[in-house]
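Marked as duplicate of an earlier ticket. Keeping the data here for the record.
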Amino acid sequence: MAYIGKQPVIGNFVKLDAISVVNGQASYTMQNGGANFTSYANVNQFLVSLNGILQSPTDSFTVSGSTITFASNLVTGDVIDFIIVLGNTLDVGVPSDNTVTNAKIVDSTIALGKLSATGTKDATTFLRGDNTFAEAGGGKVLQVVQSITNTNISTTSTTYQDVLTANITPSSTSSKILILTNVPCRKEDSAIGNNSVGLRIVRDATVLNTFGQYIAWNDNNTLFEQETGSFDYLDSPNSTSQITYKTQFTSMQGGQVAVCHDSSGASLTLMEIAWW
């Protein structure tokens, strides 16, 4: 808004607690609401009335910290009528609890710089509801690791064996690891009617998707039937150490099965996801 002449000074104007007892001294403690008062910039902000007469700043009194000192000792019968402090320019004081609405919070360096929030305030962070500055999270991809192979593996074993291995080192214990895997499978034994392949994911020595995934063929006569096992899993390793993930497969009925047949490729992708 434009003004003709000098722009008005906006401030926080405070009437300090009454000083009802004078004791022959020149110095007295200034308080506001029972707390020592120091929210001023210089002595010229003070209006002080002594015995009904306004006092001249510096000449008649000085201030330092929460202490006002008169030019001479006060005596019995002297009355400090009032002390009023004219606020600093743009100093509106401290708002009462729950008096500032969201609409009054502005996105500016000045406003955010006055907030008593924890964390680092910069261009990459925002103020959360718990009064902390933090980076945006909950879905941000921090790193991606992928392992691929087209090496054919054939087995009749009912024990799980490795197809792919990938290592990742999370940057935070709160991070999630999104695991995506794709494994082409084939039936290679016509003698077993209900032949099937089992697939699973392992973190170090821990089986993650204990329910697994199964690809089944119910044909006694047909060889080389092919299917692809594709699935994902969201893991919470709670670690910042290197972690090894593996995609494994097995023959469920003991018939011969294979992965990565005819040079078809399998993949294991690990994504570290920032999480709160």
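See parent ticket for discussion. The chain has a mean pLDDT of 83.
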